Amino acid sequence: MSLADRFSVAGRTTIVTGASSGIGREIAEQFAADGADVVVCSREQEHVDPVAEAINDPDDGRGGGSDGGRCLAVECDVTDRDAVEALVEATVDEFGRIDALVNNAGASFTSPFEDISENGWKRVVDINLHGAYHCTQAAGERLAATDGVVVNVASVAGTRAARYMSHYGAAKAGLINLTETLAVEWASRGVRVNCVAPGYVATAGIEEQMGISADDVDRSDVDRRIGTTAEIADVTRFLVSDAASFVTGETVEAQGVPSAEDLPEMA
């Protein structure tokens, strides 16, 4: 196997949840461009159809097209087990197998802990943690049949304090622990389970909250406090590829260089 082949995901049928925009869409486009067949899902069909159309259009310049993998769009609320089972069935019906699952679906809002309602807390945990539970369990047998890979998209908020995001941080911490535990349980089934935990990434949400867009990211600056969706997709693609065949149960924190205030003083 060549070096390029080891880092490739070509031929791997991959489900990417929460793929209507941002990190999920970028992952789907990168995988398809590399030759993987991709199933993208979102809670609303109208939000995910344009992703599949762009990937399947050879003239669009994003994703697969004539030289890459195909893409199927499926409406799926990851908190609904019946919908998730239908997602898995649709994937197998279309492509015959599942080689990788990227649990990217997530949601949050900022609020002091004491102001978070019970419904708000449950909703955030349901999408970020229970959604991964539903998808991974539903796809488990198919993944075992292909020596497949699971990549959970968590957050650095799950590894440290996340001011005004206690619900989100708690859910992502649970997702990180699920990654470690499932990697042990499913090793005998030939399934690798890993996690990527992004820091601040230039998505539409970050642009709305902080006024920073992908156009503002300057990689000539060593102080890399904001990442791009492409950089998170790069890490995800590596974790699915054979280049990461000796990696399981790990959480890769993709957060760039910390600020000067966070660095220890030199002796």
What does this structure look like?
This protein has helices spanning 3-6, 22-33, 45-56, 81-95, 118-145, 166-185, 204-210, 229-240, and strands at 14-16, 38-42, 71-75, 100-103, 149-153, 192-198, 251-254. It has 267 residues and is α/β, with parallel strands linked by helices. It has one domain (10-197, 228-255): Rossmann fold. β5, α6 (166-185) and β6 (192-198) form a beta-alpha-beta unit. α2 packs across α8 (229-240), α4 runs parallel beside α5 and α5 runs parallel beside α6 (166-185). The mean pLDDT is 90. Residues 12-190 form the Ketoreductase domain.
Number of domains: 1
CATH class: Alpha Beta
Shape: globular
Enumerate the spans where pLDDT stays under 50 for 5 or more consecutive residues.
none
Let me know the CATH homologous superfamily. Answer: NAD(P)-binding Rossmann-like Domain
Estimated share of beta-strand residues: 5-15%
Q: Helicity range of the residues?
A: 40-55%
Q: Number of DSSP strands?
A: 7
Assign the CATH topology.
Rossmann fold
Topology of helices and strands:
Elements: H1 3-6, E1 14-16, H2 22-33, E2 38-42, H3 45-56, E3 71-75, H4 81-95, E4 100-103, H5 118-145, E5 149-153, H6 166-185, E6 192-198, H7 204-210, H8 229-240, E7 251-254
Parallel strand pairs: 1-2, 1-4, 2-3, 4-5, 5-6, 6-7
Question: How would you summarize this macromolecular structure in one to three sentences?
Answer:
Belongs to the short-chain dehydrogenases/reductases (SDR) family. With 267 residues, the protein is α/β, with parallel strands linked by helices.
